[in-house]
Amino acid sequence: MSRFDGAIVVISGAASGIGLALTKGFVAKGAMVAALDVDEKALSRLADEIGPQVFPMQVDVADEQSVEQAIQNIVGRCGGIDVLINNAGIAPTGRLGETTTETWRRIMSIDLDGVFYLTRAALPALMKSGGNIVMTASISGTSADYAYSAYNAAKGALVNLTRSLAIDYAPMGVRCNAVAPGPVRTPLIEANFRSHPGLEEAFIRTVPLGRLAEPEDVVAAFMFLASQEASFINGAILPVDGGVAAWNGQPD
Ligand code: NAD
């Protein structure tokens, strides 16, 4: 039997990169995925490709009311929620002095407020099902990337929010963990590579395994944390980074 047969899994930012790989991974293991994304065209491609096991929903996670409406629709249509994956995120670059207030607010509104809205809305259903939450954090949340001030701050907050949820909702039977990927080849990072020549090579030099991750490289960690096999793992931040976080930066 598949590990997630019949499970209702909500994934934000499901139409591209890591979220797309997660959607395919969970569907392949029998789950029904409510795929939330702001990109309508990408969602319709996803629905065409995957078929009836995916429930595409155009939602801006930074819009509190849309998020609450989406969760009500999912619970109404599917009967509950077993797993919430807070994955939607953006990562514009910039040192603090070059960061406009608008950029700062945009990053916080998607990478942090969006997680707050979605998690708060889904918690009643998760408490009912004894479900769990997995965050897409980043190694930028456990140490800092050069010239990603606002993103580092948002992911740092997300890491401690993971721990906070883990302790507050454990008595109600809801676990919360995070995966902290290193650099993953997705449209998000490729946009930054195009605007910053040399950045791709610089990132690769920080990875002891000598390459960027592909989105599929990080899926198993999410599935493990979301599964019954991880039933006593709560508040963990699991790096999936080819060894980046293990390296202290000293040259070889
Ligand atoms: P991506 O750009 O390929 O995918 C992100 C998806 O989120 C897109 O489909 C986008 O439309 C959606 N999205 C953006 N804003 C949204 C909003 N307001 N509401 C709903 N959906 C929205 O990027 P990715 O690399 O797959 O990133 C996914 C997550 O992984 C992000 O949280 C990112 O910070 C994190 N992450 C990425 C890397 C990396 O190197 N790519 C590393 C560590 C962590």
Automatic annotation (TrEMBL):
Residues in Ketoreductase domain copies: 7-172
CDD domains according to UniProt: SDR_c
Top-level taxon in the UniProt lineage: Bacteria
InterPro entries tied to this protein: KR_dom, NAD(P)-bd_dom_sf, Sc_DH/Rdtase_CS, SDR_fam
Keyword line: NAD, Oxidoreductase
Keyword NAD in annotation: yes
PROSITE patterns in the record: ADH_SHORT
Entry annotated with the keyword Ligase: no
Transmembrane segments: none
GO MF, any single term: oxidoreductase activity
Stated family: Belongs to the short-chain dehydrogenases/reductases (SDR) family.
UniProt name for this protein: Oxidoreductase
Origin species: Arthrobacter globiformis (strain ATCC 8010 / DSM 20124 / JCM 1332 / NBRC 12137 / NCIMB 8907 / NRRL B-2979 / 168)
